[in-house]
Every structure is written in C-alpha cells, then in structure tokens.
Design a protein that fits this description.
Two copies of one chain form a homodimer.
Chain A lengths: L1 E2 L14 H20 L4 E2 L7 H5 L29 H11 L6 E3 L4 H14 L16 E6 L3 H9 L3 E8 L2 E2 L1 H8 L5 E6 L13 H9 L8 E5 L17 H7 L6 E6 L11 E4 L2 H11 L8 H11 L2 H30 L5 E4 L7 E5 L4 H10 L2 E2 L17 E4 L6 H28 L1
Parallel strand pairs in A: 2-13, 4-5, 4-7, 7-8, 8-9
Antiparallel strand pairs in A: 1-11, 3-10, 5-6, 9-10, 11-12, 12-14
Helix pairs in contact in A: 1-13, 7-8, 11-13, 12-13
Chain lengths: 436, 436
C-alpha cells in the first residue's frame, strides 16, 4: 500500500550532482517564495469530518419522533447502563460481535478508553493480581506511527510506552511477542485495527489471531482495540475487521481485547454514540465500574440514531455517501504528491482504502522542517512526531495528513504547497549533506 | 422543618401499657394483613421524575432547529471542551457564578464528580503534594443521612468515610472542623447544599462560609458541592444557594469547592446536560485532565437545551411547572404519615421545601423491618441504611422516601401502606421490649 507515486522518468534527487542539487534548490526556493506570497490559511491537522459530511446526518436534528424503545420503556428517564438495545444491535452487527457484548455510551469512545484505563489503574481488571497503579511500572505496547491521543493518554496516566512497527497487515507480531513474553509490567497494547490512524493499515486475521493467542507474562494483558474506522471504507473493497473477540475466546484469552467504536465520523463528530464490546467478564467488570459513575447513557441520542439508520445496513449505505464526499479529497492528496514528488526518492505515502488519514514519510530528518515551512506558508499540518509517543519521531520523517475537513479545492491547494515544502526541505538537507 | 405531624390528641405509644400495646398490635396486624392481601406493586425507591414531568420537556425532541452557536461555529463537530457558551451562561445564572467558571459536559453530573475524584486520586489537584492514590489513607467527610451514590463511589474508590450530622442548616460545622483540622488524610467532603438528599436541608450562608473558611490540615481539601436541586423548589420560598465559590475565594481557599449541577431533574433524567463550576485554577486543572479523555461534549444537546429554555428565567419558569406536578405528591406523603402516625411518637419526617425526597425517621431499630414489611406488601422502599456509608445506619431508623415517580394515587396508596408498616414495626418492638 505504501508507494512512491506513479512510474516516472524523473531522476531521484540522491542521484543528482552537487551542482544539480544547488540549481534545483534555487528553483524550488522560488516556488516556495511564490507559495508564501499567496498568504494561504489552510488546515490539514485534524481528522474532522467536513461540513458536507455532517450535513448527511442533519435528519438527526429533528429526531427522535418517539421516546419509547421497542420494549415500551421510557428512554427519557434514568437507567439502562449498557445502552439502548436497538443501538447495541447496530454496533454488534457492524463490529461482528454478539449484542450481549456491547455497551453503548456517550458521545466519545476516547472517554470509554479512558474509563477502562483509569479503572484498570485504580481497581485492576477481573484477572489482575492488584490495581495497576500499585505496580512499580506499567507499560503499553504502541505500534508506530499511531494515534496521538492514545499516546497522550498514556503519558498523562504515567504509563510507559514501548513501540513496535506498524506494518501493512498490522503490528509487527514478532516485535510484540518479544516485548510481552517475559515482562509482566507490559500490561497492554493499543491498536487501530482497521484503516489505522495514520497509516491506513488493516490488521489481518492472521496477525489478530497471533496477538490474541501469544503468551504474555502479565495475566491481565489487555489489547485496546480501537476500531474507530471499522466501516469507513474509501473503495469498493469494504474490508471486514478481524474478529478480535472470537479469536481471543478461541485461544482462551477471552478478556484480552476490549473493542471500541463510535459514530463520531458517521453522524456528528461531537454528538454521536460510542460503544465498547468485550467478553462477558470484561463487560460485567466495566458495567460495575460504570455503575459508580453514571445512572445510564443518553438513550434519547441512542434512539435518535436508531430511528435515523434503522439498522446496520442503514449505516453502511450512509458510509457510502461519506465515501463519495471524501474519496476525491484523498485522490487529490495522491495527485498532488505524485505530481511533484513522484520518482524523486524523497517521500513515500500511503493510498489508504479507508479511514481518515494519509501517512507521509519524508526524507529522514526533514519532517519538522516540512511542517515549519508549511506553517510559514499558511498551511497547518499536524506537528511532526505526533504519531509517536511523547511526540518524538526517532527519524523525524513522519507527517500525518488529514484531508477530510477542508474543501476539495483547499486540499488541492494545500497539498500542492506541502509537496513544495517536502521537496525544499529535502534539497536543503541534501545540499547541506553534500557540502559536509 | 423536621416535625411530628399535626397537633393531635393521640397518646404516644410509649405511654401505653403492655396490654394496650398488645391490643393495638393485634389491630395493626389486621391492617397489615389487609394491606398485604391487596397485592400492591408500587415503588418509592428512586428519585426519578414522573412521566408527566418528562412530558414538560418533549419540545426538546425536535430540537435544535440550527447547528450553529451564537458565534457561528458548527456545533455538530468536535471541540469546545468547556461546552457551549450559551449553555454555560444559563448554568452560571442559575448557580450564581461567573460564566468563566462553568464547564458543561455530558448527561451526568455524577460522571463529572467521578472524573474529579479519580483525577485527584491519579494525578492530585493543583495544590496537592502528590496524587491522592499515593497517600496511605484518604478520607472524606460525609454528612448523614446523605446521597447513597456519593457513598458508593467512595467505597468503590477506596476512600474512607467519616460522618457528621446533617442539620437543618447544613452539616454540623463543629463536627466537620474537628475532623479536618489536624488530620491531613481528610482530603474532602461531600455536600448537597440545597434541598439535600434526603433531608431537604438547605445549607445556610453562615454554614457555607464556615466550611469554606475553616482551617484544614490537608492543603488540597475539596468540598464537592453537589447542587443537584438548586432550582427544585416546592414552595414559593425559592431558596437561593449559598455562594460557595465566592465565599471560598473571599477566605483565600478558592480551590476548595467544586460545584456540580445538571438538568437531569429539569429536562430528561437520562438526556440532560451536566455542569461543573470551580475556581480558575481548578477549572484549568479539570479541563486539562478532560483533554486526555474527550474531544468535547455533546454540544448539539447543549444547543437543544438553549433553544428550549432561551435563558435561566426559562428554566425557572419550567421548574414551576414541575412544582405543580410534584408538590401534591409531597403533600400526599405528609398527609398519609400524619394521618396514621401523628402524635404516636414513633416517627419523624421532613416537610421539604424543595428537592426530591422525604426523610422518614422511624423508631430506632425498626427501619429494616419497615422496609421488609413494605416489600412483602408490594411496596418497594429504598433499602434501610442507604443514606449512610456502606449502607449502615447505626440507629436503623432512617428511610428515604421518593414520591416523584409514581402517580399521585400510587403515592397515596403506597404511603398509607408505609404508615401501617411503620406502626406495626414499632409495636412489634415496643411489645417485645415490654416483655423483656
């Protein structure tokens, strides 16, 4: 999936002579100056849906038309910690799990993840020898590049992060195995299994099976399976997520995975419905913890979503409308990068088949410079290193591009500018290296 | 406020002879048998709004009519950790605080309380020497009787509870002072300041001022000021809550109180808006913690409420409609208890001027028996002792009555039955005592 643009007759920059590099640097500086003069104000930083995507769900604003669930219960009142059954059924279908495994919550799966981690720290899980906060050290395996909010949560809560590479078929299993086999302080692992943030990688069933089966020194090892983009396809190839709960149960580690998802990038980013799915023991544990902090989720919002979608197929049809709106933006990213950088040997980028991001790897040591150049030219990019723990990319090469929020025209303009910055930063480095 | 029913010519049961007691016991047993035969199925357990109360807010179901806030921002998307400004303004007005102090969150103030306590445990507050979880012991002062969910949260999180009496004007300040002055492990205190759960007591400004000013051994002492019933008046005397934040700032303990409220018993119990208000330092600390767990609250629900109420006066007018529906139920409780128990000297109960509960104190040692008798007769009461830490009422005399959810007719029937149970349990005890 990672590639280098179309076949091209361009000469890789590394094959250029010092004089040729210097000449090219002069040209690209001129391009950058022209870019800078345009006084742009564009933002590719965050994976937010565009206004046209949000418009797809405006029908929600006047719903629900009723305040009773299928059983006749009044959903305006307190109660029902695990959420509206009809909403749980939709998530169960989308996630490929039994409805009994599902809890529907508030508007944020990130909040549910935080609840789980803090509960593990303060109380421990069903199979923990003690609360994690009583361990001398707690570590989590973090595939990189990964989701910045997973990593900032770990840092906030004092959990050490150990990294493994994120491959095209999921985390590097051998690297994970090596970390978890003998060290009981390695208590868990993050993964975005489908259309990962930011690489777009999809965890294969084989990799998922190994992760669920591998021996771990910690008896209460948890894989936080953040399936944020389970149904967020960008092509006809509508990838099915690996059956994490089923694989874990089959290898006698039923409590290992805890699955998360939400409608944040399906309906309204700020007003959707989040869900968690887990083994019977994990679910009972989670609901028990939750019972001390809540008298039930917003079931009116659950019913609003149920009326809007009817069923999981309603969600799938809705996601195809999202795809129609955002696939052209991803194509624009591809086109802009290929047009300027193809064949130069200074950048690789992904062509994701789903999700919200394009992962751009530039010449080692230049990502920060690219982001700075872009910023000075009025193009906001996610800070270099964001996809790594503590914001530290050891190679300073990774940049996450989020093309959904700006308009198509803005994406085109911004990405043409980003390509200039990538080339300029590379030429600066290569000419400096040549001089050294 | 606590009283013993109307002036009556009845003889207190304690003045009856053994023979008279035995005769009366026989009569009341017959009443109870008749009650039992009715096969009732009534529930006075939880402080839930009735369906007619929820109906008052059905206008919310078709709102909002827009998805832009006053500034033009798209409230469907992520962002705005402290909530919609217009919603914060309404809470600021209702709570008598500056809008800058207010954070609006999800559907549950209990969840915000839990977030605050867990954050104090895992991170400590702005003025904490260390995270509370690293202290050998953490204790909270709990006025009793109090709110069961405060106490179960403490037990869940391993925080020890030390009790003080809840008086008619708030917690017994001398008792609180004695607990907090020298013991740095006493880190906080719960209070429901207005129309307290379950006694209906209102914390006076004098008591509030003393609580905010008193010396505490812990430098990071917190008063969790759960103003759940701030605007839930039952009479024309619309009590104004003490200005906790202002009093605390004036006595140079600005970070001591953290205020909580919600619209759970204003609009929809399960789908309202919760709020927190605190000093600038506490608010920044809370928002910082929240930023690791959320990308913003459900601002669509905030706007829905803003459109529905327009402003704080809209809320106040709405609360008068609630009062019209529930004040007769509180009157029915009073009438039933006075009719059967007045003058017998075996029960005291409150006549609250706001809130959701009537506090019934029966003859010492008989509350559990009353609840069991009622249960057998098909009347569900909150378990005896619920209003005390660990569910243990040292005198076994306290029963919390919640009359809002059942219909008026059901309240009348249930409370007539409860009064029989109170008298029967008292007679059982008095006759047994007389024999002993």
């Amino acid at each position: 999936m990672r590639h280098d643009g179309p076949v091209t007759t361009r000469t890789p920059l590394s094959d250029l002579s010092a004089d040729e590099l210097a000449a090219r640097l002069t040209e690209v500086r001129a391009d950058y100056d022209a870019l800078h003069k345009r006084g742009l104000d564009l933002d590719l930083t965050r994976g937010k849906p565009g206004a046209d995507q949000l418009d797809l769900s405006n029908g929600l604003l006047a719903l629900p038309s009723s305040y009773r669930d299928r059983s006749g219960a009044d959903i305006r009142n307190y109660g029902g910690l695990d959420g509206l059954t009809e909403m749980r059924e939709i998530f169960a279908d989308l996630l490929g799990v039994d409805v009994s495994a599902v809890v529907c919550g508030g508007n944020s799966s990130l909040t549910m993840m935080y609840q789980v981690v803090t509960a593990l720290l303060l109380k421990g899980g069903p199979d923990s020898p003690r609360p994690w906060s009583q361990e001398p050290v707690v570590k989590f395996v973090c595939p990189v590049p990964g989701y910045d909010r997973h990593f900032t949560m770990m840092a906030e809560l004092g959990i050490e992060m150990v990294t493994v590479p994120m491959n095209a078929d999921g985390p590097d299993v051998a690297a994970v195995r090596a970390l978890v086999a003998d060290d009981p302080s390695v208590k868990g692992m993050w993964i975005v299994p489908t259309y990962a943030n930011p690489t777009g990688a999809v965890c294969s069933t084989e990799v998922a099976a190994e992760l669920m089966a591998m021996p771990t020194a910690a008896p209460d090892f948890r894989i936080l399976w953040d399936n944020a983009y389970a149904v967020h396809h960008l092509t006809d190839e509508e990838t099915k997520s690996a059956d994490a709960l089923g694989l874990a149960a089959a290898s006698e580690h039923p409590n290992r995975p805890i699955m998360f998802a939400s409608t944040s990038k399906i309906t309204f980013a700020g007003a959707g419905v989040a869900a968690l799915a887990a083994s019977p023991e994990n679910k009972a544990w989670y609901i028990q913890r939750l019972s001390f902090a809540s008298i039930g989720p917003d079931k009116v919002n659950h019913l609003r979503h149920v009326e809007f979608f009817k069923d999981a197929d309603g969600v799938r049809a809705h996601m195809r409308q999202h795809r129609d709106l955002i696939a052209p933006k991803f194509a624009a990213v591809e086109d802009a990068l290929a047009a300027r950088l193809g064949g130069l040997g200074i950048a690789e980028w992904t062509a994701p088949t789903g999700g919200y991001f394009v992962n751009l790897d530039v010449l080692d040591g230049t990502a920060s410079r690219v982001v700075d150049l872009a910023k000075d030219a009025g193009i906001a990019l996610t800070p270099a290193g964001s996809a790594f723990p503590h914001g530290e990319d050891p190679n300073d090469r990774n940049i996450r591009l989020a093309p959904t929020f700006p308009s198509l025209g803005e994406v085109e303009t911004a990405m043409a500018g980003v390509a200039v910055c990538v080339e300029l930063a590379a030429l600066e480095k290569l000419t400096a290296d040549a001089e050294a």
